[in-house]
Every structure is written in C-alpha cells, then in structure tokens.
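Hi F.,

I've been meaning to write this up properly since the lab meeting, where we talked about keeping a consistent format for the predictions we share between groups. The idea is simple: the sequence comes first, exactly as it goes in, then the structure tokens exactly as they come out, then a line or two of notes. No screenshots and no reformatting. I'm using this chain as the first example so we have something concrete to point to.
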Amino acid sequence: MATILPLIPLDDVVVFPTMDVTLPLDPGADERVLLVPRRDDHFAGVGTVAQVVERVRLPGGGRAVSLSGLHRATIGAAQSATDGSLRVEVTEHPDDVPVDKRTREAEREYRAVVEEILELRGDDGRIAAFLRSITEPGPLADTTGYSPDVNYEQKVELLETLDVTERLERALQLQRERLAELQIRRRIRDDVEEGAERQQREYLLRKQMESIRKELGEDEASVVEEYRAKIEEAGMPGEVREQAERELGRLERMGEQSGEASMIRGYLDWLIAVPWAKRSDERLDPVHAREVLDADHAGLEDVKDRITEYIAVKKLREERGIQEDRRSGAILTLIGPPGTGKTSIGESIARATGREFVRMSLGGVRDEAEIRGHRRTYIGALPGRLVRALRDAGTMNPVIMLDEVDKVGADWRGDPSAALLEVLDPAQNHSFRDHYLDVEIDLSNVLFLATANVAETIPGPLLDRMEVIRFDGYTVAEKVAIARDYLWPRQRERNGLREDEVSIDDAVLRTIVDEYTREAGVRQLERELGTVLRKTATRIASGEASAPVTVDLDAVREALGKQRFFQESASRTAVPGVSTGLAVTGTGGDVLFVEASAMPGRGELVLTGQLGDVMKESARIALSYVRAHAADLGIPDEAFEDREFHLHVPAGAIPKDGPSAGITMATALASLLSGRPVKHTVGMTGEVTLQGRVLPIGGVKQKVLAAHAAGLTDVVLPERNRPDVDDVPEDVREQLAFHPVMTIGEVLELALEPARQDLAVA
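Output, unedited:
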C-alpha cells in the first residue's frame, strides 16, 4: 500500500538505510521523510525512508533535524500539499527476504575483501569491529556507501538496487575494484622504494667496479668481447644467434652503467647456458639396453619391451639412412601405485641409452611459468623448468622424468598442465618457445618419461598425448625375488654389513611379505628389511652376536613385532551378511568387506563407511534387486516387512567410491536374508543393474593381485572382463579360479554356501 511522504532532494550525498545524518531543514510535523538523491535534472527512482530522531535549532534561528535511515522506497506520483512542500506516493521495500546459499557466499566474500582493504589501509580495528557487528546482508552491502572511494553515481546505483543479493554482489564488485587499486598502489610504492635502493647500491658497486677495472687495465669492451666469444662457441641455431647478437649490441650501446645492463647480461647467460649443439652419443644396442634394465629392475616387462623397441627402431633408421621424424619422439607415461619402481626406472633407461638423466617433480606445481618461464618484463624473471633441465643435463637429448604429473594443480597463475600439452606433443615440441628466452627450442630429441599414481586426475587432452604403460603392482613371488636380488643387498650395504656377515632365505622373506606388508609396490617391504638389518647390525656391533648371522623367523618377530596383516576372509564371512569385494585405490588393489544387517524398522536403507554417490546408488540397486527376486533366492516376503537394512563398509575413515561394488553389496544382502554365508575363498568385483546384469569394471589386474595376496582362491568378475585376465601374471592365474558371470544369479550361485533346510531366515 502506497504511503505519502515529503520528498527531500539531496544533491551531493546519498543516505542509505541504517545511516544517521543531520540536515538543515524543517519537516514540520512529519515524523518520516523520503531522502532522494538528485541525478543531473531528475530524481533517482529509489530513495531512503528516514525517521526524524531529533529537531535542532541552529544559531541564527535556522532549524535542522537528525534523521535515521530505515529502508528503501520507490517513488510514485507526486501529491499537492497546502504548505508548499513536495510530497510523493512511495512504496516501501524493507530487506525482509529469505537469505539463500548464493547470498551467504557473497556475504562471506564481501567480508573477506573489505577486511583485506582495511588491512592495506591500516585500520585500527574499529571499522572491522563495526563490520562484524552487522549480521544482515542488506545493511552489510550498504556499508559500501560509507566508502570515500565510491563515487556519487555508484552510490546512487547501489541505492536503486532493491534485490538484496544483487545489491550485495554489486557492492562486492565495487570493493574488489577498490582492493585491486590499493594492491597496485602498494606494489608500485614497494617497487619504487626497492628500485631506488637497488639503483643506489648498483651505482656504488659500479663505481667500485670501474675503479677496479682501471687498476687492472680492463674496460667494458672486454666484457662484450667475452660474450661475443661465448656466443660463437655455443653453436646456436641461426635465429637464436641473431637474437643473442641483438641483445649484445644493446648491451654494448648502453654500457655497464645502465640499469638494464644486468638484465641483458642475465638473459645472455641463460642463452649461452642452453647446450644448443651438444648431444650425448646414444648407445643404440637393444640387447645391451635390455640387460641393463633387467639388472636394475625385476618385472616391469611392458616398459622394458617399449624401451627396447624404441632403441631398435632408432638403430634401424640410422643404419638405413632414414631421416629422423620429429613426430616419432617417445612420451611414455608410467601409471601405477607408489613403490612400484616408476621413478627409478628413468635412471636405468638413461644408463641403457647412454643419455643424461634429469628429474622434474611436478607434484603441487600451480604456476604455468614453472613450465614456460616468466616474461622478461617481470622483475626476477627466470626460464622455465625445461630450460633449466636442459642446462643441468648439458645436452639436448637427455632423459627427462616428469614425476607426479597427476598432481599438477591450477590457480589464478595459470594451468601448468595446459603448458605441458605442447611439451609432450611430438608434433609440436620441436618448436617449443620459452617465455623468458623467447626463441624456439627443439625438444624432439628429448626422451620424456612421466609418472602418475592414477590416470583419472590427468586432464584428457594431456593424457591423449601420452603413451600409457601401467604398473599394476607385484605378485608375492615377484616381491620375494625383488627383496632377494635388489632390496636386501642394497639395505645390507646401507647398514654397513658385508655379504658374508648376514643372510636370509626365501621362506623368511615370504613371511615378511605376507605378514608385514600389504602394498602394490615394495617401498614398505624395503623399510621392513632395513629395520631387520639395523637390528642385526646393532647385535653384531655390540658383540651380542658373531658373524655370520642367519635371519630366521624369531629374529624377524623380534625386529618387526607382531604380525600386522592376516588372511581374515574366513573369519569375516563365517556369518551370513558379509561378502568380500575387490577394489582399486590410489595405492593399488585392495580387499574390502561389505557387511549387511537387518533390524526392526520402516524399510529404510542405512549406509555407512564414507561411501560416495556411486556406491550409495549401487547399494540401493542391490537392495531393490534382492527384494524383487526374493522368491528366486528362497527369501520369504515377510523378511522385508517392518525391517530396515544397514550396509557398512569398514575402515570408515577412508572415503570410498567407484562403480565396482554392486555385486558385492547384492551378495551381502542375499546372504543375510537367505541365511547362507558367503564362501570365504571368494572375492568379487562388478557393477549390477536393476535387471541383474553384471557390468564390466576396470583395474582387474590390481584387484586380482590383491585377492591373491589376501589368500582368496576364487575371483568372480564380469564376463566382459574375461580378456583382462590375460594381463595377470601366469603364476597367479595358476593359483586362482576365475568365474566370469553375466547375471547376479550366477554370482550368488557361485558365492553363497549351499542352503540348509534347518537354517532359519535371518
């Protein structure tokens, strides 16, 4: 409903709700007025309804009033008044709308931006305290009206914004502009102060250097000639040499006294540091390369075969005079769990091919300039890591290991993975351009190796440029062989023991593998062997034992403590309602148990164990399937009446998700309701549909290795994953029975113990 209020025009000030203001005017008997800012020759469409708080008589007989802003109001038709005042119809708009998530997020960001502005301005805490006292988003946005940096037009625009969320977002935009301006001012001031100090320091140093050169009989010309000689020796390509000579000419013209001279010298130093004409003499002998790789690493046949193939092809091309194709570069990406030897194989490849080796760790890198370099306009600019890697290697054809490429981040400084797209593309990296050097660098002769734990976090376009070789972990037999031939000798040497002083047999090594480690790689295994050898070294050094010492089971127990890992499938699945599933994590394959329980209730499904959305959906599908096929499973209809079900996946502190636990959950529920326990030898993986179809999954090899390590002998997997069984090592395949299935009915027939007539329904 419209209200009639006297209109008070304001020419150079905007009064917002919650503001208090004193104006030289006489509102008569009115207790409320409408304060409206004037824009050029017309009024704003929105004003502030203000309450008269106090009437004041000014010196000289004039009158003034103290006003307190209440809320916004839109202006309607003008009304005639007998006292000559201007009155208008107004529609009042209090800020009483509900606050949603968008508004709360804008409110939090607004507070953060304003607090940063206050910190830059040196607030004493009073304004910050005032800001914290405001709890509603509308008045919070109106605090922008107090800012002296917001002009009259912007304040009027803010007053005219009736929607609280839009007003808060507009105020946030204005405050961001203020913050950016203050940050630029602070940076300029700091740069000026730093530059002045640096120039003064450089001036004094140059004067001292000038005096020293005069004493030594040297001059600036000798520095230029020294650079000219280095450029001549560097063997730069034509375009690069022209760039170097242009910069050298600038240095010669401006002299050492110029402030830019040090920047030019730094640039020339980096251009000269790149080994433009240097290349390692590759040893293109596939047989020798394979011998080196076999001597350094057990297993890893895929990567060994690929490196051998790379060397063999390159050898044939050279022998037959076939021109090198720039697009034939190898970009190998080794993806697998930690501790499987991905990083260490890079050094072996470099040794096998006779190349230099450089490692670049990309874990946590968030700045694109780390790859492409900084532009020379920035203070303290440097080339990217690739240029530095070439400098460290001293050749243009090293082996460069890009470690942890799946952990590259991105923020406001750019996306390093996007910069890697050019580096890792054989069709483009022959003309890679670093921002600092700003010349083309040929990376086509570099052998790039990348490592990652999982492929899912590598951006798709980047993964498309890589040749992926998967490391799915080692079998127990392979771990024992690696421990015997590699880890034990290395740890023995590190702990100061000779070969004839300590020994261990394969049976004890297998015990350590089975009972003290449960990993895809061998990193923890090496730590355990190091612990055993340290204990042995301590006994020999203190005279408690005399060499030679044979490490037996008692010595292992004494050094490593009680057994840490057990084959617990038999005890866990002894009661109905527990099934054994197979999963893949960032550290390799693993065995997980799914537990089902029923209790009186209203038919609800409770899920615990930090399950993700995919696993929650799988659980609901599993319950729906079991309920729909209760008669086929021998489950009476009353088994579902007035009951609720609880599915739990232990290790609740670890988040779990993925489309491969459907048949495991369905089996647990069917076991619970039929009273038939799950066979303790069976592990399973696969997704289930509402119609009971079993869908294919990934990570078969890692899951099978985990099942083998856990002592399972039967693996149930989708029919469409049957070809993936060929990837499993032959010695593991011989010890396991694989059961490809197409429906959940086949799963239950294989997994559940036979029904007993005297067994009551759960």
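Notes:
The first strand starts at residue 3 and ends at 10.
DSSP finds 25 helices and 25 strands in the chain.

If this format works for you, I'll send the rest the same way.

G.
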